[in-house]
Batch of 4 targets.
Target 1
Amino acid sequence: MEPTDEIRERMEAALRNFVEGRIVRSSSLPTADLSIRKLTAVEALSRNRKADVKLLSSISIDPNLWPTSAVIDWLNILQNMADIPKRESVGGRPNRSSGPASIFRGQNWGFQRKALIIYGGSWFQTTSMPSG
């Protein structure tokens, strides 16, 4: 069921206000994920061509530091927003990523994940495993 135009406009306005800092949502967990949440909001707006480049000004664009979900959001933003200046210098083409969790082989692009082992309260990172 599609939302009415009025509801869609209110949702889009709320997303825009969040990205612009007019709506502040704090988390009960002490995390530094505000830029990631803003990126997700911009991606949602970009799907309906309601995002503009100004919204990206408050987000630090560094896919190498982002989780896989944020890299996917960024690739969608690049695909949906043709007016991003210097697209190559701010994250690459929409069909590849400089993110640490990505694999680019020829024309295939995918993600890898790391296996974690928890032992005695400490965790150890093992070799990469292909996601599947």
Target 2
Amino acid sequence: MPGTGRTPKIQDVVVINFEAFVCGTSTSIVRQDGVLHAVGRKQQSHPVPATFTDELLLSMQEGGITKVSLPARSKEAEQMLMRCGVRRSEAATVALDVHITLVQICVPGGARLQSPTSMGRGGQPEPLRRLVARCASELQEKGITVLQGPEQGGFTPPEVKLLREASLRFFDLALERMREELQRDPNRVIRFLDCVARKGHRLHVKPPDLWDPKVFGFLHHRGTFHEVLHRAFGSTEFRLTHCGALMAKPAVEPMPNNVNQSWHRDAPEEPHLVGQWDPYAVAVYIPLIDMTEQTGVTEFLLGSHRQALDCDLLDKYPPPRQDLVSTAGLGAGDVVIFDIRLCHRGVLHTAPELGVGELGVRPVVAMNFGVNAWEDKEDNNNWGDQYLLSGPHGK
């Protein structure tokens, strides 16, 4: 291939999940058993035509977006159309070139989530009352808001350090116990009350230290983000219902688990609550490292908390880029608050050099808050019924 000096090989590819949008449908290009495959809507796997395998591999190596064109009525174009759900009789008559856009799926497609810079008189930081009112309004309208930097209600470096150390300490202990469990039973499902393994190399843990009010009282009350919740809920009658850490291990080897999280909501609409509280529950994310597009960001669909939308469909039919925002660009200690009904997904972490700890993980504190009338079903739906680690436990 021009400019490469050699033909790229499959083993040169590190992150191997891409999506190709053909004829308005979504097809995944994945590597399996040393061969590139196209997986169509029916989840049937077929080898990718060899005529553009080299171009595909090169685009993966460069980590960008490229386009591959297959000549009209060619055998390769017919094969690709069929893999996207077009019938053989129809595929053979398509008189147009088939254009395939290859997009690296571990990179978010939307804009960076940012708080508008708003200064008071004399160039001073935005007054607290105005800041709280603006963020509460954004949360209600868009489904998400952010507090950036300690001067706008984010956490201070010492607070971030405490959170990071507690999360990593528990994570390391959990990993050691997980290895012991898997040695005894390689088929063991990691689903405990204090630790759950999820897709995309993510481990969700519940460090009990985070419930200690003497050390981590700033998570539980009197923070700027608590004032935003008070304003958004329209009530002081709300509580913390879940507190843990999302630990994303880097995807640096070709593995079947190299996939983004599916689009989802954390909880469904509850009409009997909306009439009195809107929102009635939120999630709060606090990244404990500076975030880039490569460090396992979370991507959100603005306004989807107000839409009767099946979030699962977004995996097949991606939303418009202008409606997406992600946590890329946020600093350690910034506070993201989003409606529990907002469609979102986690994206692969692929930069261990930007993470922390021996494995280069990306830690994010994750909390749920809701009005007293709301029942948080997080533990019942997503966690196990016994503890992985012995000793004291949080709620």
Target 3
Amino acid sequence: MGFDPNSSRDVRAGDTHDSNIDRPSKIASWGSSGSRSSSVSSLSFEGSADGIVDATIITRNGLGGMARTKSLRSLCYSSDNTTTCMMSSLSPTTTVQSKEFVHNRLDQIQVGSQEYESVLRKMMEPHLRKARILRNRFRDPSSFGAANPIASSLGVPYTALRKERPFLFDEQTHPLGEILADTLGVDDLSRIHEMNVDDATLRSSLLNPARRAAFHKAYDCFVTTFCLPLLHSLAISKQAFHIKSSSARITYRYQAFPTIDIVRPGASATLPVCDTTTGHSIGCLAFHIPLTASFGTNALYTESYPGREDWHPLRTKSGGLGFLFDGSRCLHFSVENTSNVSRVSLYFRVMIYRERSWYDDIGNEDDDAGLCSVAQVRDSYTGGTYYDEAVIELGRSAFIKRSERLQDPDKRQAFSFV
């Protein structure tokens, strides 16, 4: 399956004339000499979120702990009564007739068309019902209330930052794909399935401190010198901080090591999930960074807003294009990869909260300032080395990292090699 040249969702990294892509006015370099430097404690940023335009994107959780199963093309034909494909809301004339019909039709019809969405929805519906139940089960009743719909913004921090947004980054400044390929010992990430490299070998490369050091530094530099300044600039432009004091300290808690997804041709589908059902805070915003071409059935699928279920794939012809979206609430999944290209991508999370001060004791500042509450900052991954943090003071243009030392991958961190 190839690219649709007429698709408005397909964005080529490097198309600097596209006004619908977020980009800072200046991208931080690795070092003054052009070499790849280690993480620094003081990180400056420049840029503006002016001109940011909402766009449709797609991603998925990517945790190794995510349930993996048979192809979605066969799931709805399971003998399990709980996953029956015949829905009462579908008329006999629109019900999928056979597994072979679905397999052939999904490959032949255009991705994103009404017919494609119809066939995909019929296959997904039994599993979406389960995903909806799980998502509601993990909602915070103190923040949402049982009567509020899943799309409600009540108790949800920084709602203005949760719309799906693509952004470009400079692959010369942040050569994530190149360094990851070197770390894994492969020549071309998109052809990794053709190389004699098994999952155990890939994991051993990432678990070896010396082998992963260059990639870990590159990732941390990318997050702290590009992604966090971009997100901070967007927050300021959207007036996401309800804070009166210009000296308030804002903390960005980010995943210290990314989830790495390798989706080979023939890879099984993933069940629809959202990050809150895997133990992450509702305060987490998701970053999805494809390092290879992402198209057709090797791409990721999501909804553009919680509960909307307007499933769409994220497609990009090359690296240098990333995506920010509400992964904590939006369901996302992948279908069976019937393409001949492996998709390699990074997935990580960021949450934002205000530094507490002694002023809080006498009530001179707003409680949470529209950011994560104390309870929302704590999730199942708090503690250990899963998260790292960088702090910025409003009115200043520099992030300060909590620690100059890179955190070792947490034992709860999984590598997803599909």
Target 4
Amino acid sequence: MQAKNLSFVTFFTKEFPKIFSNILRGLSRKIGSMSTELLTRALALGSVPTGEMRPDLSKPQERRELMTRKDLLLLVLASAEGQSFSPVQLQKSLFLVRELMSNQLPDAEFYDFQPYHYGPFDKTIYSDAEISKREGLVNITPVPGQQWNRYSISAEGIIATQGFQMSDKARRNVKKIVDWVRGMSFEQLISTIYKHYPRFKENSVFQG
């Protein structure tokens, strides 16, 4: 009887804690697995706060997108409201947008103007216009008897510019620049550009 009691005491004090501990670990793993699954499902449903605020995907998110040089070309052409540009008018409009509006268009990629025959010039403008023509965004019309073209926006191009992310003020100011450029004669335009940006008179063939 005493031996049996000792055996029971030994089991209860030495073996039972081991068995109970193993049972607890098994339950802990099972509960932990269930908790992880529930947490994952809750996060997927957005019902559990995390360390940062989750965006409200039901509302449109503000995005700042780079305005490419080709976008600026379309914007300038669209600002003439259907009227066309000579090559000089197009070049000088885009040049003045860069010089006068870089602070209003902080995400814009501007053309790289260099001094040329008639002041600031970037030949990429013409290649971008050709690409835009193939995309149906720009009209390029040869001038009879001349070796140059006139450039204007197409209906599809106007629609494209409506999606540009920019302020109404910036749009109005681009139009002011375009109206000013198109309101000047060739001689007045080049002379005024040289007066305010004399470094671009280098390489000029214009003697006005």
